[in-house]
Amino acid sequence: MSATQVFKKTPMLRDVKFHYCPGCTHGIIHRLVAESIEELGLADKAIGVAPVGCSVLAYDYFNCDMQEAAHGRAPAVATGIKRVHPDACVFTYQGDGDLASIGTAEIIHAAARGENISVVFVNNAIYGMTGGQMAPTTLVGQKATTSPHGRDKVAAGMPIRMSEVLAQIDGSYYIERVMVADVASVNHAKKAIKKSLQYQMEGKGFSMVEVLSTCPTGWYMSPVDSLEWLKKDMVDYYPLGLIKEGN
Length: 247
Hints:
This protein is an alpha/beta fold.
């Protein structure tokens, strides 16, 4: 009896081991981005921009041209690449510490200019790589190394909903928030990422898919508990769904 192959790793991911912590969903999101590029026939046109953060080594994983950017500057680097290579499929892959903190100006102005790039924004509500500090997206009451008693909204303000902020900018075309906490949400996240890339190749303008992700290490939770916390607590403050489509 011959075996039937039911799954095959996309050639858009290199055959190397991920460095991510057990239970981290960066690996899932990498696969969704890679599969979307492959299925759209954009393998030879794809150029990715890696950030500073947990996914700083993304250039080791994606099997396409990759550029490393300084912390928060991925949208600026992607802007230059896309303007020089307008037929390329240019994407940034950024965490919340990168995009929503030091890179806030870059992402807002890229959207304001309507730069024709696709942004994958991974929101795990914490600075994962540097030790679990409070991020702009950390929830009120959520504990971090720099907020051991939980985020205080009086002292630190409220978490920033970046998707809603960017949706208010005229230059943005497509903004959607998804998660990768179960099979159904993973499948939906892939559709959103694929749509973002399609819109770019159609010349629609700036698009961003925010992906709610887990950080079991930074949250001091088991992988299973972190998925439940994402679905219950994160989604309550960061509601899923289409936020903007069209100018």
